[in-house]
Amino acid sequence: xxxxxxxxxxxxxxxxxxxxxxxxxxxxxxxxxxxxxxxxxxxxxxxxxxxxxxxxxxxxxxxxxxxxxxxxxxxxxxxxxxxxxxxxxxxxxxxxxxxxxxxxxxxxxxxxxxxxxxxxxxxxxxxxxxxxxxxxxxxxxxxxxxxxxxxxxxxxxxxxxxxxxxxxxxxxxxxxxxxxxxxxxxxxxxxxxxxxxxxxxxxxxxxxxxxxxxxxxxxxxxxxxxxxxxxxxxxxxxxxxxxxxxxxxxxxxxxxxxxxxxxxxxxxxxxxxxxxxxxxxxxxxxxxxx
Length: 290
Hints:
Blueprint: E1 6-8, E2 19-21, H1 52-61, H2 67-76, E3 83-86, H3 93-103, E4 109-112, H4 119-132, E5 137-140, H5 144-150, H6 161-177, E6 182-184, E7 201-204, E8 207-210, H7 218-227
Parallel strand pairs: 3-4, 3-6, 4-5, 6-8
Antiparallel strand pairs: 1-2, 7-8
């Protein structure tokens, strides 16, 4: 694979090798188009900002590095371009929000306000914003016209959960992320079988996806929250280790997969913002397994 065009970006402490691809400069104008009476035509670079080679390089660059050190380098050296945090304000969301806001509280926080959240989640969002101090909270809502057309009753979750997630999560996030080069997620490898091999850096549609907590376990998350006196989500103590929309989230028995309470009874483990699911066909998303 050819090496991408690189613009050097030094790492903290003077360590070399911290470089990421930058958009290529527009090519020189065609001389035949610059004569008097003609205008040079600018060419816009529409190629992806990041490639798989960049994810490999970043994973190698930060392998074994402390999470705080990694985030400090990425943010202080502006290695990511325009970046945002995607947060569910769920069970462990406070950790990532605190880590990043402690370095740069101006990083935008994107919250998918689906209209189906537990009231406790909405209250928790306000509590964390006041406690942690991130300054740019953006609430993403579904398109009203699409919602009226595809889920006028508000019950699509009950027969087509993939379609419901597509309307209320996937499409609003896709629209919002169009203006960013990179996103931070709070995913952890221990959360589900679908995330066991989760790397710190991934590429999705030319955008960098950063998973700073990929290698954190539950004990480390709990210790961080205790050390920094971060409030837990109020539903955690009630038996909800993974919290999504209220119709599709149930309690989990001790020892079960933390995400087993999500879409219980359906052959579904992800909402679609990180893994593709079916589209808005009129039929059911998948066959129930109960």
